[in-house]
Amino acid sequence: MVRCSAFVAILLFLAPTAGQAAPTKHRAKATSREVEKLLPSPRPINLSLTFFQPGSVESDFGAIFRAKTVAAKGEFETSDQFNKRLAAIAGTDYYAVPIELAARYDADRARFEASAITAPLQDHTALATGYSGADPVLVLRDSGKYLGEYVGANAFGAKSVVTKESKIENAIVLAHPDAENMISTFSFPVPLERAKTTKMAFLVVFQPQPVEGIGITASAESLSTPTRDEPYEIRKIDKYIFVGDAILWGYDKATGEILGKVQLGQPSFMRYPRATIVLDRLKAIERGMPNGQLYSTPDSMDKVLEYYESRLRTDKHMVRVSRPKDGVGIGTLTAENQEGKATIRVVLTNGGGNAHTGIVIEEKH
Hints:
Elements lengths: L1 H13 L17 H7 L22 H8 L10 H12 L4 E4 L4 E4 L4 E9 L3 H7 L7 E17 L5 E16 L8 E7 L2 H4 L4 E9 L8 E8 L7 E21 L5 E7 L11 E3 L2 H6 L6 E5 L3 H14 L3 E5 L6 E8 L6 E8 L6 E8 L1
Parallel strand pairs: 5-9
Antiparallel strand pairs: 1-7, 2-3, 3-4, 3-6, 4-5, 7-9, 8-9, 9-10, 11-12, 12-16, 13-14, 14-15, 15-16
């Protein structure tokens, strides 16, 4: 009987009293690798779509950024091995990310119009990443968060209330010379009788492409110092994905019908699949093509020439090809359209063996 009373007493001692919470069970914190497994994977998109279920084709920018971020070149990794690793991770898939644009209907022309603005890469990002290209940046999403306030003072003792904020900017870099910094207006034809019920929305569909010596993505962080006139302390993180091909899709959010697709910058056939962008413009000038874009690929010269010859002949161009003996040296491809008003030149160089094929492309109108 005594033993039983003692046992009951112990139970009463362990049980929470009225108003007292039961002990909290602490779970071990998930590792970053475990968290990444829970995040959505990017979904490749079919470029031939004409209809889709809204929400079924979009990818999260952060998911694409994570999937395409490559570890830096290793100490015991050759440039050839690093570029092959870049090409493998870049892949050939396209992805769709939403972008908010203000659309206005023009009843006289029976079409919706929207404008997209690009800007140069931020100086601090260029310094942090080593990217020296002058290619335009298209911001897909810019978000901010209020972090509170504090009282700050300058060197003279003047005090003011400083607002703390954090911002994240997600953007793509149109990494080719035909896409200049721009304010472009795009039109999407819609009959007047349908326009009133149409809910315009937009996607940017793009293909990631690696940049030599940098990778497929880049990020940089900056901190603005508060002043008396602008009492804000803003910590900003810029995240960029380099792309070689980008298309703006306009669609009806109510029905999922795609109302138009507009190319942003360079046509996709000009870029060799999985090639790495080379930033050294002097090489293009040395080869007599000052406006040319440089690429590098581990594929053979014959394979590259066959790719461009097939594409250009399909587009009804007159093509002339010159191949070096034994596949080593300089190869050229010149193509003209049927009117003779546009010329495309492709110059290839190959040092032989397993050396990469260097590609210089120039288009003249």
